[in-house]
Amino acid sequence: MADVESFTLDHTAVLAPYIRLIGTESGPRGDVISNFDVRLVQPNEGEIPTAGLHTIEHLLASLLRDRIGGVIDISPFGCRTGFHLIMWGEPDLGDVVTAVSDSLRAIAEDVEWEDVPGVDAFSCGNYRDHSLHTAREWSKLVLSQGISRDAFARVGV
Questions:
Q1: Which of 18, 23, 87, 94 is 20 to 30 A (C-alpha) from 122?
Q2: For residue 79, is it left (φ>0), alpha (ψ between -120 and 50) or beta?
Q3: Pairing between strand 71-76 and 32-39?
Q4: How far is CA 91 from the centre of its chain?
Q5: How many angstroms separate the CA atoms of 67 and 72, rounded?
Q6: φ, ψ of residue 83 in degrees (nearest 5)
Q7: Could you read off the pLDDT of 74-122 as tens digits, one per residue?
Q8: What angle (nearest 5°) sits at the alpha carbon of residue 99, between those of residues 40 and 37?
Q9: CA 14 to the chain's CA centroid
């Protein structure tokens, strides 16, 4: 089996919330993609309930694209502690932290249910499993802690 970077990360040593660059990959034509670990919850100490995580995912998919170019995808970790953020090129980590923070602030303070994309049977495979209330509460908690630019130290918070 291939080695997967996230399974070699010492989850007992990281200090969430943080965003870290997992790595970059180049395609056959030289196009570069960057993979970020957007860790919102301390591993093995908590997890975002599925309905709230699902709503955060749908909102970040849109809000991030409004705030920073090059977003390919944002997908939740199965452990429900954060997301993989895949982007074109090699964006500045500070710009990524700002875009994620601003998006979480919008979820915590501004978004109404009508703003949440993909919450019907046509546009979502599990449309009944959403909670804007839970998404707001977790976004507030993450923002109150600050998002570090280092997985192992509280930097830039």
A1: 87
A2: alpha
A3: unpaired
A4: 15
A5: 13
A6: -140, 155
A7: 999 999 999 999 999 999 999 999 999 999 999 999 999 999 999 999 9
A8: 40
A9: 16
Domains annotated on the chain, with CATH: 5-145 (3.30.1360.80)
Per residue in 125-141, pLDDT tens?
999 999 999 999 999 99
pTM reported for the whole predicted model: 0.94
CA dihedral 19, 153, 49, 7 (to 10 degrees): 70
* Distances 67 to 1, 10, 73, 116, 134 between C-alpha atoms, Å: 37, 31, 14, 16, 23
For 48, phi then psi, to 5°, come to -80, 130
Which residues have a Cβ under 8 Å from the Cβ of 143 and sit 6 or more positions away? 101, 104, 105, 108
